Each structure stands twice: as C-alpha cells, then as structure tokens.
Amino acid sequence: MEMLYKALKRAIWLYASFRERLSPGWITKNSSRIKEWELMAYAYSKSPIGVVGGAIVFIMFILAVIGPFIAWEPYWEYKIVTLGEEYRYRAPCLPPGCSGEPILGTDEWGRDLLAMSLYGIRISFVISIVVVLLGAPLGIILGLLAGYKGGVVDEVIMRVTDVFLAFPGLVLAIAFASVLPQRIRGFLESNSIARAFFAALFGLRETEYGQIAALLSIWFAMVLVWWPGYTRVVRGSVLSVREMPFIEAAKLAGLSTWRILIKHILPNVISPVIVMMTFDIATATLFAAALSFLGLGPQEPVPELGFLISKAGQFFPERSAHVVLYLGALLLIMALGWNLLGDALRDILDPRTRRAIEYRLEKEKKR
Amino acid sequence: MGMGSFLARRVLTFIPTLIGVLLITYLIAYAIPADPVRAWVGEKLMNPQTLEQIKIKYKFNAPWYEQFSFLVHQLLTGELEDPVRHRNVFTEITSRFGVTVEVAIIGFIFLVAIGMPLGLLAAIFKDTPLDFAVRIMALVGSSLPSFVLYYFLILLLFVYTRTTYLAGIPEPTLACRTYVSSLPEFIPVLGHVASALGNVPMFAAMMCGELSVVGETFKRLYLPGLALGLLNGGFIARIVRNSLLDAFSAEFILYGKARGLRRISLWKHAFKNALVPLITVLGLNLGGLLSGAIIAETVFNIPGIGRYMYEAIMRLNFPVIIACTFLVAIVYVTINLVVDILYAVVDPRIRY
Fold first, then answer.
1. Which is nearest to B223 in space by CA: B112, B103, B101, B142?
2. Which residues 295-324 in chain A show a CB within 8 A of chain B?
3. Residues B183, B195: contact at Cβ < 8 Å?
4. Partner residue facing B314 (CB), from A172, A178, A310
5. How far is the C-alpha of B192 from the C-alpha of B190, rounded, in Å?
6. Among residues A25, A100, A113, B20, which one has the fewest Cβ atoms lying within 10 Å of its Cβ?
7. Helix and strand tally (H, E) in chain A?
C-alpha cells in the first residue's frame, strides 16, 4: 500500500513538472491543488475496495489491449467436433487428465472458450468505455447550459431530457440498435479508413464490416440513451453553484460564458459525475452484453460475450453450463472492478474525507 | 401553492413529455431503411396486392406528418390495429400488461422483503462483517449480468427441484372473468375500477375468491420475482442503511436521547426521516418493473409487455411500438408524480 502511494505521488509530481515546463510558475500557482491530489492518492492507497477494483480494471485493460494478439485460436475458424450433430460443446478439461485440450471447454463452434473470451474482453471494454466517454460529456454540456442559462434554454433541454427519461433505457436502445445497422453498414462499405480503424479497435477482421456495423449500432444506441442522467445531475449542482459569489466575480471580470462554465463551474460539479461515470462503465458493460444477448449485436463468428451466452442459453444446462458460468463470471468481474473503484472514488472525491485525513496526518506529525 | 395547483401543473407538463415520446418513437420507426410492410406480411403471404392494401391502410405513401397524425389519432381513439396479429392493439396490450403487473408486484414484494430487513440490520450492526456483506451483496448485485443469474436460478429451482414451471400464466375460470367484466353493471363507479383491475389475472381471481389461481400465480412467477429481488435488494439495503444512519446522526435524535426516549421510539423517528430517499429509489424500481423487464420476460418465457415490445421492434411493427411506449411513458410519469406526492405525505416539511 505504501508503494502504491509513493508511485501515485511520483505520477502526480511528474505531471506537475511537465506543466511547469510548459508554463513556468505552474507548481507555485497550483500548490494547493497538488496537495489535494496527494491526499486523494493517500486515501486511495488506504482503501482496500478501491485497490482491488483498480487492480481488476487494470488487468482487464491489459487483457483488452493485448487480448486479440495473444489469442491462440483465430475466432473465424470453426472446429466443430463431430460427435454427432448435437454435441458441439466440449466440457472443460483440467490439465493433469488431458493435456492440450481446452481448459475451460469450448463454445458452440468448438473454439477454445478461453481464447474467445480474450476477443470478447476487448469488445466489451471498448464499448463500455466509449459509451460513457461520449455519452457523459454530451449530458454534462447540456446540464451546464440548462443550469447556467435558465429560462427557455433550461425548459427546452429539461423537457427533452424528460422525454428520454420517460422511456425505459433498454427499450429505446433496442429501438435504435434495430434501425441503425443498415445505415452504418453502408457507411463502412464506402469508407475504407473507418473500416480499418473500427476493425482494429474491436480486434476483428476488416471483412466482417457487417458485424462491426452491428457493434457500432449498439454503441450509438447506448450513447443516445446514456446522457439524460448526467444532464439532470449536473443541472442540479449548477443551480446551486451559479449563485456563489465567485461566479458573480467572474461575470464582473468580463469572462465569457464558456470560460465561466468550463473553468469555474465544471470543477465544482465534476466529482459526483466522475463517480457516476465509473459506475456507469460497469452498467454499460452489462447493458451492451444484454443487448447482444437479445440478439441485437453481432452474430457469429464474432465472440461477443453476451452473444455467446445467449447461444449457450439455448442448450442450458446439459451441454453449455460451463459457457454460461465462465462468461457470466467474466462479465461479473469486469463490472465489479468498475463498481468497486466507483465505491472507493465516492469516498475519495468527497472533500470531507480529505479534510478528515489531513487532520489525522497533521496530528500524527505533531506527535 | 396548494396541492391542487401543483397537481394541475405537473399533469400539464406530462403533455409535452408524452408528445415527445410519441414523436421520437415515430422518428425511429420512420428512419428504418427497410420496408416494414414486408416484415409484417411475411414471405408466405406476400403478393403485390396485399402489400398495396396495407400501404394504403397505414398511409405509407402519404408524407410523414400525415402518417404520424393518423397513428396518433388511432392511438387516442383506441382503434389501432396490430398489423401482424390483426387484433386491436389495446386488447393485446391489456392482457399482456396484466401479466407484467403480476411480475412487477411479486418482484416488488421480494425487493422490499430482501432489501428492508437487510438494510435495517446493516444499520444496526454498522461496521461489522454483516454490514460488509450487505455492501458486497449490493456491489455484486449491480455487477451481475441479470440473465446469468436467471439461468442459474432456473437450474437450481426448476431443473433440479421443480418448484416452479416456465410455461403459461395461470388464468381465472371463464365464469370468474365474465363476473368481473360484468361488475360495472352492478356497482356504478367502483365497478369500472374493479373490472379494470380484473385485467390482471391474479386480481380477478382474488375478486372471485379463486385462491388456488393466486397460489398458482405465485408458484409460476416467484422465480423472476426472486431474481429481481436478489439483483436490486442489496442496493435497496444500502440506501436504507445510509439514510437511516444519516437520520440517526441528526440532532433530534440527540434530543430524544437526552429526553430519555426508549431505543425503539428513537428508531421509529429515524426511520420516518429516512423514508424520502427510499421512496425515490423504490418508485424508480417499480417504474422499471412495470415497463416490462424485457430480459427476465425472455428468459422466463413470460408473455408480458416487455416481450411484446421487443417482438414488435424486431418485426418493425411500429403501431404496436408506439402504443406500448405510450403506455410505458404514462406509467413512468405517473409513478414519478406519485413519488412526489408521497414525499409530502411522509415529510410534513415538504409542501407544494
């Protein structure tokens, strides 16, 4: 734990000296900010839940980056074992008994489940992160505008938000995901750069642009339903912040609206949003899996986790219990990592926790 | 501002929301590049004449705003027809929504029965292994893919022990249904309410005293209810715990202690103050359940509104999609309103 704190502290100072190089005097100007960051790093290294969550997220990130490169079986080669047409699944097999056999068994097409899940992690990871990284800023910007401007702007933005909140998210996402693929397919067909980019991003082959279009449509559908929650939360906090004297001062100093919003209001409302984003990445992981479980995502041969589980569900439990169990546990761990991290961040980003830590550290120093 | 004018203002804001919901649903449907008529008719019955007839019937050749106003008009007059099943959409929706209401009620019972006691215990035994276990349960519940939990509950409670079954929905007898639908003739106003409630098979059976049907319904639907309760129960427990502890650290509790109140009545005061966040979360959960748990309905083979909507979307059947989303949106905004009213009931400081 001590080591983690030191490493985080070093990272903070590395960033600070980088900023100092860009604009001299940055460290002196922002010394209180750096101190807050150090306290956050200390609080994080003291939180077992946060450390475990961070470790899971880090491991999943590494697996997502290198997964498709180290997967020892290409996902497009079916190895259906002919034990009669029905017995396509192979049960798990532990090393002492059977060497060379897939340890976790195979999926419906006889492919090694462990290798397939490496592709699956990349897809789930990319979708969940990008959905939140695109959906949240959209919601935040709308929330800032609605809260700060008030009046007609507020009314219009909040009515649209209400409309989106009145839908169950899953239904809206299903509707979007069912109409989007054909359009995206056409776009990918004509644009070879986009095709290569998204194929590399998802770790798939370029020739499967139909499947990539299906993945992108899940992705767009989720971004479209993801922003309203943020708009509502941000607007609520902006309403209280904008009455503060320092905003008055910023206005009198003649700053532009955007500068006030980004520089002075956003930092004061961002903490709960960061916590919410962390939790939402977990939700998005499960949400994307649920959409492809319902058959809206890519089809074979793409080893998307939710899709593989829905296929295994048809033969559950006689032949495919291992697939549901293992892939379900994998999704659980991926989501759990983000949830644990979010649970810890909620404490760390709370200024009251930091003041308590500061107080305790001061007391220890005096002793 | 009185309660009446608050209600009136809130109900007025429903109107733009509902119009917006209809418009968005329609625009999504309109954006479909494929020909929905082909999907409705199916390959077998496809011939140019039928296609043309349907196209004229649903005004496919007219501009989009005419199509839209035609759909909305049919929706509001209750004449909308399901082009795939050739039945009135509302007859279909009523029977399916009845089933969804059953699932929602049973799920809600499990949710409260699991979440409240656990939250209470976690608050009493704060910072003990029990508290930590509830925290972990909440985290795992929100990280578990719901369909995986459903499969393993099926394995445990259906495949191995056969304590439930996964086909059909228990219905009251025909005599009972006729009785319930004839209620408005005997009782002037309440009769209509009763017969509307009678669309939920379980309620109709209760009204005729067919308790075995109610029991069967529980036997059929307790599994999805249990699953929903397990998934969200931990989260509810956390809310109960945190708001109880917040309330407990308030000054009125200190005052109560100083006055020498007994422990039990201190808890009673704390609980009443902890209700506001709890009502919000429970209301949201109930709204989610009533709008159809699509995945649960798919895995457990329940013919509810969520499945109906899902099937409609997959067949580009947008008259049905529009009717369903309209219903769901109404349910959702109504529950939000009820939650707002409940705030004022439990917390006398809140006035409208």
1. B103
2. 295, 306, 309-310, 313, 316-317, 321, 324
3. yes
4. A178
5. 5
6. A100
7. 17, 0
Q: Which residues of A touch B135 (CB under 8 A)?
A: 343
Tokens of A19: 């900023």
DSSP character string of B264-324? HHHHHHHHHHHHHHHHHHHHHHHHHHHT--HHHHHHTT--SHHHHHHHHHHTT-HHHHHHH
What whole-number distance in Å separates Cα of residue A301 and Cα of residue A208?
9
Chosen from A152, A167, A189, A341 to mutate, greatest number of chain B CBs within 10 A: A167
pLDDT tens per residue across all 367 residues of chain A: 788 889 999 999 999 999 989 888 888 888 888 888 888 898 888 888 899 999 999 999 999 999 888 888 888 877 766 555 555 677 777 666 676 677 777 777 778 888 889 999 999 999 999 999 999 999 999 999 998 888 899 889 988 888 888 877 888 888 888 878 878 888 888 888 888 898 888 888 888 888 888 888 888 888 988 899 899 889 988 888 888 899 889 989 988 888 898 888 888 888 889 999 999 999 999 999 999 898 888 887 888 899 989 888 887 777 788 888 889 999 999 999 999 999 889 888 888 888 888 888 888 888 7
Tell me the residues of chain B between 166 and 225 that have a Cβ less than 8 Å away from chain A: none
Residues of chain A with Cβ-Cβ distance to B145 below 8 Å are 286, 289-290, 293, 306, 309, 328, 331-332, 335
Domains of chain A, with CATH numbers?
70-340 (1.10.3720.10)
Assessment of whether the complete model's pTM goes beyond 0.90 = no
**Residue B313 at interface with chain A, using a CB cutoff of 8 Å:** yes
d(CA B327, CA B96) in angstroms, rounded, equals 12
Report ipTM (2 d.p.). Answer: 0.85
Evaluate whether A291 touches A174 at the Cβ level (below 8 Å): yes
The CB density around residue A196, as the number of other CB atoms within 10 Å, is 13
